[in-house]
Amino acid sequence: MSYPSPLQIETKSTAKPFSFFIGETQVQDLRRKVLEQINEYQRQNVMFLTSEQKEKLEDIACNTLEFNRKTKRRCNNDRLDLCVTADDLFAVAKLRANVYKTMPGYKEEFGTFPFLMLDPNDKRAAIVMTRKDNQIVGTMRTVYDSPAEGLPSEDKKISFGYQREIFKQIAENGRLAIDTKVQGKGLDFFLLNAQIRQIGKETDLKAFVFVVRSDRENDQTKTRDYTDHTKLYLPFGGVQVDNYIEGYGSLNQRSAVMSWRLDATPSRLFTRKAGAFERENNEEIYKKAA
What is the pTM of this model? Predict the structure, then answer.
């Protein structure tokens, strides 16, 4: 089975070289900046990457930036951007690591690179970010479906077969990270999701899928151990819980598998919170919801 690819994700045999899109000079400059960031990463963390690790990190970084530079882009908000530079990508990876390192059960997510959270799925992900005072303070990604590799959560024995059958063209949202020092973090949460939604609609996606933690009652204390994150997404409009699972990877917690239809009219709450960004992009659907 082959899945329609909204971003025309080509196979190695049919893919155009990156220089076709931005020019050979820009490609060399991009790789130079990626290598500079890798060297700085080693210096800051007093560590030495093997040639194999360095090659892997360079491959992930360069292909991630290539993918994002080929993604359609429409954003008129100074706080929002798509990750298209080496400096921004490594800043995003560090922000992810700083946020997730405090969460139990996420150690395995760091993979080969301590203090950085980059993985091969980033090579087919649109990565968005918010800025404040020229610093990246929020980020999330959406990973486009692939017939060969599937979606990231499917490595954790979750199936999105039902969602593929219903929506055909899907992507998985994840890696949400917002700096703990940012005041009014709720705004960044809505802005990131608004930009991801915009990119999804521009690339002909029909729905997003994602997995979030859900309420879990402690058997002994009868108290809630975890926040129910479904409550953050259900008010968006077009979001539903498809099913619940009792474990997610190495995380021993109840989680919810959710989907977000992109043809649904967004809620008034979503429109109000993220409307400044969306209205700048002149989406008629938001005028109806306002």
Answer: 0.82
